[in-house]
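Predict the 3D structure for this chain.
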Amino acid sequence: MHIVIMGCGRVGSTLAHILEDKGHSVAIIDQNPEAFRRLRSGFKGRRVTGFGFDRDVIAEAGIEHASAFVAVSSGDNSNIISARVARETFGVDNVVARIYDPRRAEVYQRLGIPTVATVRWTADQILRRLLPEGAEPLWRDPTGEVVLAELDTGPLWVGDKVTALEEAAGGRVAFLTRMGEAVVPHADTVIQDGDIVHIIARADELERINAAVAVRTEEEDA
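Done. Predicted structure below.
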């Protein structure tokens, strides 16, 4: 695939290298030509100086035959405008825009622009390390309403079926991490010692789900 990236900061340059290593052709846009210094000397992709929402600039980057467009500059408005130009003017279906203000995520989602809310994601990662107990979000959808969370089940759930945990928690187990590998559960899957349970649910249900699991644990302790 040919992929156009707007923004040659740390995220943009890292994406460019990863995508090129996977065999894709890449063009990267930045208004500051000095930003291209972040690219390795052997980078074979196209470097285009300018603004990603400028039609001539984005055309020079090969947007007309691009399979995807990624906007990861430091400006929310620039990212969204560029993503809309790529989609609405050039017909690129697969677009992603980074934003710093998560309150805008729902608005952009309605426009059909998937977003990655950097501030919210970073905050969640820090909270997971500060407060490892309980159901802390690993991922949330752009609206912030649905989350994937690691659930602290405790050792007393070992030997029970995943379906029993789902019934008690009132949520859906997405997968287990078992000995470092992901396991998608089925009806007969039993929780083993050391399993990490990942549940998907509405964000406003996490506290209730965690409490439901804790109640079961307290009952077993008694």
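Residues 6 and 29 are 5 Å apart (CA to CA).
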